[in-house]
Amino acid sequence: MTVVRPKRTPPAPARPASRTSSSLTPTQRRLGRDWRLAAVFIGPTLVLVAGLILVPIVSSIFTSATERHGAETVFVGLDNYTALIGDGLFHRGVLNSFVFTAYAEIFKVAFGLIAALMLHHMRRGKAIVAGLILLPWVIPTVVTAFTWRSLLDPIFGSVNVLLTESGIGPGLAAIGLVDKWPAEWLSDPALAMPAVILVNVWKGIPFFTVTFLAGLKAIDSGLHEAAMVDGASPWQRFVHITLPGLRPVMIVTVLLSSIWTFNNFDLIWLMTQGGPGDATAPYVMVAYSKAIQQLQLGAGAAVTLVMLPIIAILVVILVRLMRRDDRPGAADLGRGRSLSPGQRRALPWAIVVVSVLVLAWASPHIIWKAALVLAVFVVLAAAVGRVVSALAIRGNRLAARLVGGTGSGIALLGLLGFVLAPLYWMTITAFKSDDQIVARTDDLWPTPWSTEQFTNLFTGAFGTWYMNTILVSVASTAIALVCAALAGYALARLKFRGSESFTVTILLTYVMPGALLFIPLYQLVSGIGLNDSLWSLVLAYPTFTLPFATWLLVGYFKSIPADLEEAALVDGCTRFGAFLRIVLPLAKPGLLAVALFTLTNAWNEFLFAFVFITKDDYKTLPVGMQSMIFGDVVPQGQLAAASLLVSIPVVLMYGFGQRFLTEGLTAGAVKG
């Protein structure tokens, strides 16, 4: 009888002793294997996030319960909040913020989607066109505001002239889109809000285009091919494949953009300062007026904190969506808790209906105009699509391609004209003499070209503002880059208790608007004597650069194979040595992307510099350019020259760093 012995399973290779649970100390079992090293890596970021974001928000809550009586500050409880119930200016500010945000998001989604679809189907020149469309997003907000302010000027601007000569302007007045012609875009209460919405849409379209384009690339092309085989029309493929595939990207993009737009201050302040009257003043401007201009910090803090629940809801939804893919089984869990199919189909329509009703109540003079403008573009796009579908069904593919290509070409030229025309106007105005600007000669081409504006510009404090901006931007970027690299590595690689909670905190602070922070940070820098000092800006800027930098680098470090570090550790390298010698060299694209973003954000920042700095010697470029305007005297030529000089470094940085930026953001977005 033969005895069959069972095969012995070879023993699993022994794990290093340092990694077995039996070798961990009681403290390591409670706090995590790498808690000591994690404390060192995360310490700087934790101090900055807690000291500059979390503690100021808590401090703002206490400030909102106080009121200044002469030289004394007294506790008043909830009086500041109850006073807002009857505050008409606050009501108007909240309404303006809602109207500004709602219309801007609607048009940014529509035009961003159209632009992304056109770029997605382009075969040649896609990178060049995408780079041109990205320009409005890249250039500083102060440049955007002053360029459009110059264009919309009823006396020296070219918008009225071009619309009059083309016959469009009188036509707009004839159908009631404008009350009279020539239009006073920024001084007419009925037109000021649509004008600033237009400028925000111009600046925001690139962000939506880039994110939607990335979403379109992620949709499986096999789905479209299968639908074509089944006889689906282009419209059916768009409705049933493209839109569902883009839904996650669209939700995240709209939520993130809505948070930024709802808390916008710099664009509106630089264009209208909330006027005429309070027609464009958002709630952030109301808070600024109470806290900084009237020195009632408690009342101003109450204005920002009343909006906190609305912002918190948007932030929580956004964070859950951004982190859903990172949790194992999160998609399944999300589907388990989701609504029924019928409810999911009905929910978007319910949101649309409620939003339209609220907008109709809040802005009856705008809603029908916005609907008319949007309907024109939608009908034209649908008509071209219908013609292309009909020709394709009849088998006339050549004619379908010709009609589709012609329609796309006209739409693309129109989009590029809308994007590039303000930048062209800024450039040629910078090379005009004052006589040419005042006399309105050679509007579209300086004759002769003059450097008079640049010469006049540097006779003042512009050179000092330029150096201040460079110093603050470089210093704040260096702080953010070092702290974010250490914290990002710890969150991506090290095992310690609380890493998940800290990651969520980073995400929360990343999307937290600066409108909630400028009052408590103003108190902080005043308390330590840093008012009118560049150090106040170096201290404050990590509040909006560090969380984003950390979150992006967490995703990038996760994309680097851990085996390389394990091999270095086996060879006797320390964890910190592996971080310096292995991880950082491989993370150069991510580090460059972070450096580029933090540097440009610091370069463009306006609100903190506007609040903290009053002396000319310490102003940065955005605040300094704003101070060049004296009442109704606007130096159009010098502002154009300054805008050109401010924009060139940012455009060059994005141009040279585009490859690293794309690679760094792609890895961060996939893993982060």
Describe the structure using short key phrases:
single chain; mainly alpha; two-stranded antiparallel ribbon; disordered N terminus; disordered C terminus
Structure description:
The chain is mainly alpha-helical and 672 residues long. Helices cover 73% and strands 1% of the residues. It contains 34 helices and two strands. It has helices spanning 26-31, 35-63, 79-85, 88-120, 126-133, 135-138, 141-151, 159-166, 168-174, 189-218, 221-229, 234-262, 266-271, 283-293, 297-306, 308-323, 330-336, 341-362, 364-393, 397-430, 434-439, 452-457, 462-493, 499-511, 518-527, 534-540, 542-558, 563-570, 575-586, 588-604, 607-612, 621-626, 636-656, 658-671, and strands at residues 66-69, 72-75. A two-stranded antiparallel ribbon has the order 1-2. A hairpin with a 2-residue loop joins strand 1 (66-69) and strand 2 (72-75). Helix 2 (35-63) packs across helix 25, helix 10 (189-218) packs across helix 12 and helix 24 (499-511) crosses helix 27 (542-558). The longest helix is centred in the middle third of the chain and has 34 residues, at 397-430. The chain is globular.
Short description:
Helix content is 73%, strand content 1%. The chain has helices at residues 26-31, 35-63, 79-85, 88-120, 126-133, 135-138, 141-151, 159-166, 168-174, 189-218, 221-229, 234-262, 266-271, 283-293, 297-306, 308-323, 330-336, 341-362, 364-393, 397-430, 434-439, 452-457, 462-493, 499-511, 518-527, 534-540, 542-558, 563-570, 575-586, 588-604, 607-612, 621-626, 636-656, 658-671; strands at residues 66-69, 72-75.
